[in-house]
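Severity: low
Component: inverse-folding endpoint
Summary: output formatting inconsistent between runs
Steps to reproduce: submit the following structure tokens with default settings.
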């Protein structure tokens, strides 16, 4: 009984504060509709290609819009820091930092309507096997790209939801 009352109080408090689901339809349009109107421009190098593919999957799961309304430009920076050195001066730990700066441009007006940046930090423990280290490094980079693409999707969805709300 107490759990039911507590749940009802939480629901009433959430509705009183103006909470609205991010993907709710407002004025006949949802944030997902807005996301599907974004054209993701080519991002340089292999890491950029991976990020672009993740963004395409998250923003346009049913394929690119025939007439996109927005263009998304992204620039990436990656740094790798070797930490925790052994006596023979080899590293046992690597930290990968990926930073993405992005700009969303309205194709009709040519104006940048949203700017932002997203960062991800991942790490690996280095072993004595070269292939294992290469595989772990690639996995860490891919995890970082997934984190950044999800963060960007949420930010873009928030922007679209605010824009459709007026």
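Observed output (run 2 of 3):
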């Amino acid at each position: 009984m107490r759990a039911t009352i507590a749940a009802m109080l939480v629901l009433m408090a959430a509705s009183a504060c103006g909470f609205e689901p991010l993907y709710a339809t407002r004025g006949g349009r949802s944030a997902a509709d807005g996301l599907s109107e974004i054209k993701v421009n080519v991002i340089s190098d292999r890491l950029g290609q991976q990020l672009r593919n993740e963004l395409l999957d998250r923003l346009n799961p049913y394929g690119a819009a025939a007439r996109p309304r927005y263009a998304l430009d992204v620039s990436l920076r990656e740094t790798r820091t070797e930490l925790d050195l052994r006596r023979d001066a080899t590293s046992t730990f690597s930290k990968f930092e990926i930073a993405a700066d992005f700009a969303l441009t309205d194709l009709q007006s040519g104006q940048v309507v949203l700017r932002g940046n997203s960062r991800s930090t991942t790490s690996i423990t280095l072993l004595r096997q070269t292939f294992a280290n290469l595989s772990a490094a690639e996995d860490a980079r891919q995890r970082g790209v997934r984190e950044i693409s999800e963060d960007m999707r949420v930010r873009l969805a928030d922007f679209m939801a605010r824009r459709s709300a007026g």
